Amino acid sequence: MSENLESTTQYIKNRIGDFVPEVGIILGTGLGGLVTEIEVEKQLMYSNIPDFPISTLEFHSGKLIFGTLGGVKVVAMQGRLHYYEGYSMQQITFPVRIMKMLGIKTLFVSNASGALNPSFKKGDLMIIEDHISLQPHNPLVGRNDDEMGPRFPDMSEPYKYALIEKGLDIASKNNITCHKGIYVAVTGPNLETRAEYKYLRIIGGDAVGMSTVPEVIVANHMGLPVFAISVLTDEGFPEQLKPVSIEEIIAVAGAAEPKMTLILKELIAGLNA
Question: Which of 271, 247, 261, 1 is nearest to 125 (CA)?
């Protein structure tokens, strides 16, 4: 993997010149609009980057965006990868390692997820303070590259406390309904059954989704601070469960996206301060 990382990183560096991103951003389902806030300097299609996995979802565009957001140089993944697409955990997290090798110092992640906590509502935001992984594999399984990170990385603070508090403060000052909570990662692609939603709530989940955790594990492995935020696009409350379509999920994510964008933009702008 290290050889592929080096060759892919070099390919990207050859095309972005002396641009060195300080922040990496992963944009989730229906949340690619943050790109409109970036002063774009360069765009690379995943399909043109050697060894770079390609998103198979029609609503994930598959571009690396290089530019400036809030005065900070960023690289944004417009379109993420999922385990249910058939990729290995190492492939899913390959872009995070690339962003680290390009120079990022902090990783920001967004996703669309389902609410488990009955006090949360569809369209609300939730800053992730911790997670529970129910996915069947871990991206760190296999031989460890000590230059990347330790064999047994600590996960006592997978999401940076200081960034969580700043994010909540930004939301409060802008009258945005934003909770903090525990994210449960499942495999997907099917949504959960009534019994599964009940189980996920019992074990401590506030929201459930099919992404994020692999990237966060690898970021922690490499010593990258992480901030992650979910748009709650549906409600997994067993007593009042209703069918939901991907079109509805994308619509709710799109409606809530400006609020998420404001929080991310102010947080990133504040890094330099």
Answer: 261
d(CA 273, CA 265): 13
The whole domain housing 173 covers 2-272
CATH number of the domain residue 243 falls in: 3.40.50.1580
Is the peptide bond between 189 and the residue preceding it cis, with omega within 30 degrees of 0?
yes
The model's pLDDT over 206-216, given as tens digits with 9 standing for 90+, comes to 999 999 999 99
> Could you tell me whether strands 72-78 and 63-69 are parallel, antiparallel, or unpaired per DSSP bridges?
antiparallel
* Positive or negative: CA dihedral 32, 37, 257, 270: positive
The total number of residues written for the chain in this structure: 273
User: In the structure, what pLDDT confidence band is assigned to residue 191 with cuts at 50, 70 and 90?
Assistant: very high
pLDDT tens digit sequence for 49-67: 999 998 777 555 689 999 9
Could you give the number of structural domains in the chain? 1
